[in-house]
Amino acid sequence: MSVLLDHLPELWQGLLITLQLTVASFLGAAVLGVLVTALRVSPVPVLRALGTVYVETFQNLPLLVLLVLVFFGFPYIGIKGPAILTAIVVIAVYEAAYVAEALRSGVNSVSKGQGEAARALGLTFTQSLRLVILPQALRTVVQPLGNVTIQLVMATALAGAISVVDLTEEAKRINLVEAQPIAIFVGSGAAYAAIAGLIGLTAGWLERRLVIVR
User: Which of 47, 123, 164, 184 could form a disulfide with 159 if both were Cys (CB 3.0 to 4.6 A apart)?
Assistant: First the structure.
């Protein structure tokens, strides 16, 4: 325990970076996930195919490979940015595939009559999706989106592979000096568990508040 207290400032800084990665990546994944969902449920076959290819591609590629490829490979074609920005963008693009799948399941749970009613009122596909379908779909997938967010938190631990000093990377550095892996990694693991628990509780609370009584 003393080793954690001795290095509390470094661990705290690592935790802040992890939270920054989580929040920024989730916002990016949410926006991109909505767009991919729109493609997946589009009445245009080509757009549906594009959405499917996106989801299938990123759900079947390791995140670590994408991080390393973008950070170390893209500079050769003139695309380079700070490590933390690279991590945020890659994690957001990767997790958007999971957000899109969660949202698509919510869209599929909305009665077809809702879409038909929207079209009867003269709404376009985009308007009906934005004003009618998605608001109802979101209320049915709060818990799945919470699970995706927890997955995203754990994914941020891979950012250390491209030199982002998040909580996991900070713990590794401290362990190289102190050589007390049990205390250090149990402590950092407890921080991840606390974040995941908070997300799970928040998702559960929102699900109860937003539940649709059928």
Answer: 164
